[in-house]
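Retro notes - structure team

What went well: the batch runner handled both jobs without manual restarts.
What didn't: labels got mixed up in the shared folder, which is why I'm recording both outputs here explicitly, each with its sequence directly above its tokens.

Job 1
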Amino acid sequence: MNRLFAAVGVFALLLSSRASAGTVVWGNNASSAGTESIEAFDIDTGAQLASFLVPNSGSNLNGRGIAVVGTTIYYSNSSSGNVYVTNTVTHSADGIAFSTGLNGIANIAWDGTALWVTGYNGTNNAYRYTPTGTLLQTVLGFGNSRDGFEVANNHLIANRGDGENIYDLYDLNGVLQTSAFINAALAPGFVPGSITTGITFDGTDYIIANSPGFSGPTSKLLVYDASGNYIKTQTLAGTPPGGAVRLLEDLSSLGNIPSNPPSGVPEPASFLLLSAGLAGVAVLRARRKSRPSAWLRP
């Protein structure tokens, strides 16, 4: 029995190490040079995992929204209502997913089923679309030119405008629930004069982009738990392609769905571990019962 529990313990350690692997965060860069670029980072180390100029013709402008769904990247810029498509592997030009008719798109977020889009340049609503462009919902008066927007835990979360450092929490109809849910300017190490922009939820934590603006290439990610409590600051390595200055306007990460399970609900890895342990106990008992009676001791 001790050997069985030891084996299960090793299996648990392996599962734990896999589950705690660093979240990959994708970001779309604004640029003063008119070269829109996309980057990816490891949240645990800050290592730059990907960096490329967007491939679609006519979209090499001022980068804004991004949502990564599997290997598909949906992205936008400040001067077009198109949602463009590329992928995480080949970075190929995969065309336009759909056109919103907006003057520009500030943010794109994925809720597990549909894409949310917020407007730029004067549009005061948030919109929910299928991946092929069928409009499902309009949230009126939600706010204009927000740099940070995410859908998570049956809520919308967004900052208050272009370069604002306060993020408020709303229900899915845009009704305010918690004012100043996160005030990024209070984070340890926050540099006065810097700005926070894109926000994403990786299924466990909120991650916010912190940048010095166009004054330098170095930027950071601020990490908060699901309750809005500060966890850490991660400095990002590398530089964007083409010598552009890094300013991550929007972020995306895998692992987010609109209704993530509460902390008390076991994750799939935990269920697998429990099943493996019970199966092992059952096998051991079956073997004991099948042994000849000579094994029994008085």
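Job 2
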Amino acid sequence: MQALMTFRIALRALARNKLRAFLTMLGIIIGVGAVIAMVAIGEGAKSTIRAQIAALGTNVLIVLPGSNVQGGVRAGFGNVNTLLDADARAMARELPSVAFVSPVLRRQEQVVAANLNWGTLAQGVAPEFQQIRDWEVAQGRFLHEGDMESAAKVAVIGQTVARQLFGSDDALDAVIRIRNIPFRVVGVLVPKGQTGQGTDQDDTVMIPYTTMQKRLMRITWVQSIVVKAVSAERVDEAEEQIALLLRQRHSIASGREDDFNVRNLSDIAEAATTTARVMAVLLGSVASISLLVGGIGIMNIMLVSVTERTREIGIRMAVGARGRDIMLQFLVEAVVMAATGGLIGILLGIGSSEAIKQWAQWPTLINPAIIAIAFLFSGAVGVFFGFYPAKKAANLDPIEALRYE
């Protein structure tokens, strides 16, 4: 009952100066709203990065050819033809840490269907590429081992290619032409969407890598090899085993530079996620400064309120109010202002996050835990910055307070 009465008195005191109370809460409102919005932006960025890495496949390693040196100029990885499909078969056969392996060939091609054509990325891959990329088939089937052995003229197309060449018509079993060579569409992939660089993953045509070697590129080597480790814990082990196997197969002596490069997508994912996490913490920290500013504003107004209500405090003490009652009243006022500002700030933060998502097309992800933490922190700010004014009010001498004009 005593606590309820104290709460009512605090509300009446705040209601006497509504505008001043609102302006005092404004710092808390902006602080809480900014924290929620900034953390939502950071969490959205981390979620997007994780989704993009997952779209590339999990536990994935990419093996690239080495580089050549001419006149002291190093051309970079991929400029020599040092990888063979036999290397890929050896990895799958001999390395216990490797689950799936696929040679990969890529080049831009113009694909024709009836009277329509579309420039897209043609990829020569093995059947294992589907498991490596975790890419499901919406219609038909993916490539199989028989297609590799016979260098079959079959293709699996992405959603973008299907839409551009066939519109709303069924693309399955249709014939497309690449360099005047007919390919039968045996499958249509489920959509993957864009990468972080804006590349459309669905704008692709996949054919057997043997077909691409023999019929389109007329080569015997492969441009890269993608490997999926058996688990995330064994990715580093797979990387070491691949490097050791290729050095043996390519007869690279100790101390000589490798003619290949193994890239670990897990390291790339971890670096990108760490960067996004640091940015989220930085944004949240900068936004939380507004909460401290709001807390200082509460302390300032409460000190003014103590001065203005000195005579009121003296009268209350004269009729029996104890120091802790006075202290509790002013403390409740400070907490009510901070908590109310926190609730409004939560609504502002959620609304701002949704507005950013809709208008700026920037992904945001609101974490309920952050909302709870922001609200509790706003209440804690009220307690912390309201304690000194409340203590000052409780320590007033009743006689001096009654004399105050």
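One thing worth noting from job 2: The chain has a mean pLDDT of 83.
We'll revisit the folder naming next retro.
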